[in-house]
Amino acid sequence: MLETILLTLLFAKIKGYKINVLFKSWEVYPIIILELIYMLMQISVFKGYYGYIKYSGVFKTLYLSAFLFLILKYKQYIPAIVGSICIFIGSILNNIAIGSNNGKMPVFPNISYYTGYVSEEAFLKANDIHILGNETTRLKYLTDIFDLGYSVISIGDVFIRLFVAIVIYSSIKYANRPKDRRYKSWIN
Q1: What is the dihedral of CA 175, 177, 179, 185, to 10 degrees?
Q2: Which segments of the protein form a coiled coil according to its record (predicted)?
Q3: How far is the C-alpha of 1 from the C-alpha of 164, rounded, in Å?
């Protein structure tokens, strides 16, 4: 989700907010540490080691839970609820795709073949919920069709990433307010 974080920081900067305020408290660092661990896991996949994939569900839960520190520090309860709704919608969309495809999530890589992230034998080695998509795939538009070159994500995953963007952006926005105005709603 590194690209989500970077895009959100860029968006906040374009909107005129100081992004360095986010890094002045410890609450952002668990997210950064877990993001670094995730990057190491991605590198291991590039190198052909798929042993960490079985822990990806637990890791995703731990990663998203790390955002609680930011939510509590910057009192981002309403954005967290909106983001949680996005996670809920994304999870439902992913479950519909998986349920429609015999308990598997079809993946349609393009760029990832060129970057070396995916190979046809990788799906056999990984032995997880993901399978290579083909013409028999149902509800293709809900499967992993967005290829980033180092990951292939679904529309459900995009919704899940919205949680990250919403919490980070609203935290930056809150931290940029003068201290005497921070008690007001995140919308103002």
Answers
A1: -90
A2: none
A3: 8
Task: Provide the 8-state DSSP code for 143.
Answer: S
49 falls within a domain: yes
- C-alpha–C-alpha distance, residues 96 and 43, integer Å: 29
Residue owning tokens 């990250």: 164
What's the pLDDT at 159? 96
For residue range 44-103, list pLDDT tens digits in order.
Answer: 877 777 777 777 778 888 988 999 999 999 999 999 999 999 999 999 999 999 999 999
Contact, 81 vs 162, CB < 8 A? no
**Could you please report the per-residue DSSP string of 40-54?**
HHHHHHHTT--GGGG
Q: Has residue 176 been placed in a domain?
A: yes
Q: Using DSSP, state whether 105 is helix, strand or coil.
A: strand
Q: Give me the domain span that covers residue 173.
A: 2-181
Sorting pLDDT into bands at 50, 70 and 90, what band is 184?
low
Residue 93 to residue 74: CA distance in whole angstroms: 30
Residues 6+ apart with CB under 8 A from 29: none
The Cα–Cα gap between 92 and 89 comes to 5
